[in-house]
Amino acid sequence: MSETKIIPIFPLDLVLFPRQELPLRIFEPRYKQLVDDCMLGNGQFGVCLLDENNSVNGWNSPKLVGTIAKITKCTDVELDGLQLNIETIGRNSFKIKKIISPLIPQPTNYDPLSVEGHQEISEMHEKVGTGEKMYIQAEIEMIPEIDENISLEQWQKLVELWKQKTVTQALPQVVEPHALDHVLEQYYLTTETPTIDYIYSLSALGAKDPNELQPILETRNMTDLIHKVEELLTVK
């Protein structure tokens, strides 16, 4: 049986893949608390795509498969501690076994960008006790990494699918082949020795919506991964 542990969860409108970098600007009080707690601990939290069909005590709910993010740098934006810039990198993916709800419900008409919204949350936090968590937590189990290799032939097939999709979506504008190659070079996707990280990056490049990337994150073996990426990059 896999070992479980409890971690903070940060639902976002994106999918973070293992070993990808993710910079974040933190301004909401609940996520400021999350970062503070992480910096006092091992610097890790879970990044999950938003589940638009569910909520947790009024807040955005996470999808059940996400990726551990490790904070590599944390700086104040204006030296007042109210806004932070953090740099993170994806670690292993995980599956949520149990969601732990924050004690504070989302206020009606809450505006996370307003001073009034921040004050309201801070007052609610003081009433329930500042030791209570304002952010979602979850009991998770880690998902083993895919350690299979991708062949150069498989990689080249995926690249061709991406090119075909890009050309089709650009119509009636004409995209020249050299322009496509230039994009691949810009994203460091020109290689003779592809790895799983190249597949993740090409998928992100070919997706219009983060929900298209969630099934790719949830795959457990190379065969399923390539199949899901082919589905993503095939012109419907």
Features of the shown structure:
236 residues, alpha+beta, Archaeosine Trna-guanine Transglycosylase, Chain: A, domain 4, 2 domains, elongated
What does this structure look like?
- With 236 residues, this protein is α+β, with helices and mostly antiparallel strands.
- The chain folds into 2 domains: 4-142, Archaeosine Trna-guanine Transglycosylase, Chain: A, domain 4 (Roll), CATH 2.30.130.40; 152-233, no CATH class.
- Helix content is 35%, strand content 28%.
- The protein has helices at 29-40, 115-128, 152-170, 177-186, 196-206, 214-217, 222-233; strands spanning 4-12, 21-26, 44-56, 59-62, 65-76, 84-100, 137-142.
- A 5-stranded mixed beta barrel has the order 1-3-5-6-7.
- α3 runs parallel beside α7 and α5 runs parallel beside α7 (222-233).
- 27% of the residues are buried.
